[in-house]
C-alpha cells in the first residue's frame, strides 16, 4: 500500500502536460472520482488498524499534491502563447448575445398616456397607496354612508381604521389642490386596490390614470375636447367617442366614456358584447364641494377630472383577454412585448 502511494507520488511529481488532452488525462488518473487516489481511499478499510493513521495522512498528502500539480499544469498551459486554442477555447467566435428584456405592457400604456397628456401641458403627479380616509373619500365628497366605503370594496388597515388602501387615484387630486392655488393641470397614474374576487375581468389591485384640470372658465367642452384628442391619439383618428351620463360623488355632472369597438369595427364581438361600444373610464366637472374642501373658491375656479383603467386600455389595445396575465410574470406573455415601447 505504502509503496503504491510512493509510486503515484513520483508519477505526479514528474507529470507534464503540453496540451489540454494531457491535462485531462492527468485529471482522470489522479483527481476524478475514478482516479487511482480514490481507489486507494477505498482500500483504506483493508489497512491494519495500527497503520491506519499513517496511511490516512499519506493519502491526504497525495491528494493535495495531485490538486496542486493539476493547478500548476493548468496554469502552465494557459500561460503558453496560443494556449486558449489548446484548451478548447476559440476567442474569435462571436459573443453569445445578451437576452434583452421587455417593458411591461402596463408601463408601455402608462408611458404612452403620459406622453399624450404632456403634449397638452399636463404634468405627472403621484400620491400614496396607503391613504387616509379623508383623501380617499371624505374630501372627495363621499357621503358618510356611501356604499363604496363599505367592506366589499375597500381594504381597511386593521391597525389604523382611519387608513385604507386607496380605491382610486383621485386621492392625488386632493393632495395636489390642498393649500395650493390653481391652475392645476396634472395626470396621476398609479396602483389602486379593491376587495374583489380575482377573475379574468377583475383583480384586487389594478392601475388607473386620473386627470385634473382646474382654472378659471373651465367647462364641459374642455373636458370633451381633451378626451377626444387623447382617445384619437391613443386608439386612432377614426375612433368614435360617446359620453354616457353617470354619477360620481366628486364630479357634477358626471359621465362614463365609451369608445367605438375597434376590435370588431361595428360587426359585433364579445369584447364589446355586441354593442359596438366599450367603456374606458369616468369623468365629470369637479364638484364645487371638492374645491371647497381644498380651500379653492368654486365661484372663481372650475375644473374637470377623469379617470381611466390602465389595464382596460391595455387589454383593448393589445387584445388581451385575461386581467390576471398582467401580474403573473409569465415570460411567454411578457416576451410578446419585446421591442414595443
Ligand atoms: N375615481 C373614479 C373611479 O375610480 C374615476 C373618475 C375619476 C371619475 C375622475 C370621474 C372623475 O372609478
Explain how this protein is built.
- The longest helix has 31 residues, at 49-79.
- The chain contains 12 helices and 9 strands.
- The protein has 2 domains: 2-87, no CATH class; 105-337, 2-Layer Sandwich (BirA Bifunctional Protein, domain 2), CATH 3.30.930.10.
- Strand 6 (241-248) and strand 7 (251-260) form a beta hairpin.
- The strands form 2 sheets. The chain has a 7-stranded mixed β-sheet, sandwiched between helices. The protein has a two-stranded antiparallel ribbon with strand order 2-3.
- The protein has 341 residues and is an alpha+beta fold.
- Helix content is 38%, strand content 19%.
- It binds phenylalanine (PHE).
- It catalyses: tRNA(Phe) + L-phenylalanine + ATP = L-phenylalanyl-tRNA(Phe) + AMP + diphosphate + H(+).
- It is found in: Cytoplasm.
Task: Describe the SSE topology.
Layout (H helix, E strand, L loop, with lengths): L1 H13 L5 H11 L5 H8 L5 H31 L3 H4 L18 H15 L3 E2 L5 E3 H4 L26 E3 L4 H8 L6 E10 L11 E11 L4 H16 L5 E8 L2 E10 L16 E10 L1 H6 L8 E8 H9 L12 H4 L7
Parallel strand pairs: 1-4
Antiparallel strand pairs: 2-3, 4-5, 5-9, 6-7, 7-8, 8-9
The chain binds phenylalanine.
Q: Percentage of helical residues? A: 25-40%
Mean pLDDT: 91
CATH top level of the largest domain is Alpha Beta
Q: Helix/strand-derived class?
A: alpha+beta
Write down the secondary-structure element order. HHHHHHEEHEHEEHEEEHEHH
- Total beta strand runs: 9
Count the domains.
Answer: 2
Amino acid at each position: 500500500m505504502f509503496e503504491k502511494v510512493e509510486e503515484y507520488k513520483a508519477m505526479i511529481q514528474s507529470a507534464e502536460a503540453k496540451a489540454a488532452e494531457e491535462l485531462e488525462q492527468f485529471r482522470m488518473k489522479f483527481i476524478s472520482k475514478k482516479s487511482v487516489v480514490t481507489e486507494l481511499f477505498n482500500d483504506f478499510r483493508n489497512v491494519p488498524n495500527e497503520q491506519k493513521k499513517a496511511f490516512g495522512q499519506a493519502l491526504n498528502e497525495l491528494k493535495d499534491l495531485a490538486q496542486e500539480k493539476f493547478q500548476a499544469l493548468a496554469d502552465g498551459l494557459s500561460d503558453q502563447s496560443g494556449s486558449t486554442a489548446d484548451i478548447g477555447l476559440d476567442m474569435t467566435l462571436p459573443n453569445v448575445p445578451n437576452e434583452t428584456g421587455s417593458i411591461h405592457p402596463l408601463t408601455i400604456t402608462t408611458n404612452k398616456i403620459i406622453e399624450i397628456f404632456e403634449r397638452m401641458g399636463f404634468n405627472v403627479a403621484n400620491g400614496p397607496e396607503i391613504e387616509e380616509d379623508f383623501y380617499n373619500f371624505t374630501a372627495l365628497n363621499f357621503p358618510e354612508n356611501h356604499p363604496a366605503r363599505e367592506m366589499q370594496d375597500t381594504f381597511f388597515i386593521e391597525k389604523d381604521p382611519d387608513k385604507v388602501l386607496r380605491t382610486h387615484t383621485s386621492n392625488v387630486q386632493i393632495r395636489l389642490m390642498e393649500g395650493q392655488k390653481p391652475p392645476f393641470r396634472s395626470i396621476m397614474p398609479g396602483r389602486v386596490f379593491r376587495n374583489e374576487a380575482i377573475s379574468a375581468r377583475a383583480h384586487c389591485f389594478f392601475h388607473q390614470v386620473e386627470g385634473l384640470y382646474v382654472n378659471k372658465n373651465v367647462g364641459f367642452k374642455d373636458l370633451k375636447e381633451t378626451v377626444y384628442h387623447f382617445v384619437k391619439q391613443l386608439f386612432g383618428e377614426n375612433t368614435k367617442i360617446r359620453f354616457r351620463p353617470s354619477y360620481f360623488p366628486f364630479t357634477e355632472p358626471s359621465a362614463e366614456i365609451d369608445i367605438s369597438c375597434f376590435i370588431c369595427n361595428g360587426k359585433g364581438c364579445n369584447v364589446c358584447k355586441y354593442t359596438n361600444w366599450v367603456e374606458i373610464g369616468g369623468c365629470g366637472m369637479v364638484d364645487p364641494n371638492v374645491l371647497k374642501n381644498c380651500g379653492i373658491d368654486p365661484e372663481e375656479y372650475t375644473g374637470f377630472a377623469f379617470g381611466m383603467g390602465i389595464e382596460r386600455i391595455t387589454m383593448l389595445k393589445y387584445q388581451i383577454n385575461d386581467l390576471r396575465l398582467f401580474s403573473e410574470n409569465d415570460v411567454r406573455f411578457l416576451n410578446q412585448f419585446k421591442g414595443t415601447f
